[in-house]
Amino acid sequence: MDANEVQLKEKLEHHLQEAARVAAEIQALEQGEQVPHFDQIELPAHQLGQRFSRAIQEERAREVALQRLGRVYCPDCKKQCKVEIEPRSVASMDGPIELAEPVAHCRRCRRSFFPSADPNGIR
């Protein structure tokens, strides 16, 4: 593990601890003076975890899609085609997310294709 990765993991841990403190304070305010059952603590925490998961998935997919920008060759006619990013709704295990997906359009063949399926196709 390089120094940058260690630093990023420490930063993430710090922010997770801070987010947990803030989320617990929000729960306490929402629940008022009553003593909550544990499921009243667990369920909102789990929902927040799913929200965090969806945000990570969207961000990482966006980063990957941006790496795929450029030009690719059409798998049929071998003409160079421009890659664009298009949104796509996906049902993840943590709920719906909006993915940024690289899509290339070949005017000659009148078709679209996904360059992420061909790691050697990007030029």
In short:
The chain has 123 residues and is of the alpha+beta class. Helix content is 48%, strand content 26%.
What does this 3D model show about the protein?
The chain is of the alpha+beta class. The protein has a domain at 37-117. It has two helices and four strands; from the N terminus they run ααββββ. The chain has helices at residues 3-31, 38-67; strands spanning 70-73, 80-92, 95-106, 111-113. A hairpin with a 6-residue loop joins β1 (70-73) and β2 (80-92). The model has no long low-confidence stretch (mean pLDDT 92).
Shape, per Cα inertia axes? elongated
The pLDDT mean sits at: 92
- Order of neighbouring strands in the sheet with most strands: 1-2-3-4
Q: SSE order, as H and E?
A: HHEEEE
User: What class, by secondary structure content?
Assistant: alpha+beta
Please, how many helices?
Answer: 2
Helix content: 40-55%
Hey, roughly how much beta strand do the residues contain? Answer: 25-35%
Q: In this structure, how is the largest beta sheet organized?
A: 4 strands, antiparallel
Radius of gyration (CA) equals 21 Å
Kindly state the number of beta strands. 4
> What ranges have pLDDT less than 50 throughout 5 or more consecutive residues?
none
Distance from N terminus to C terminus (CA atoms, Å) equals 30 Å
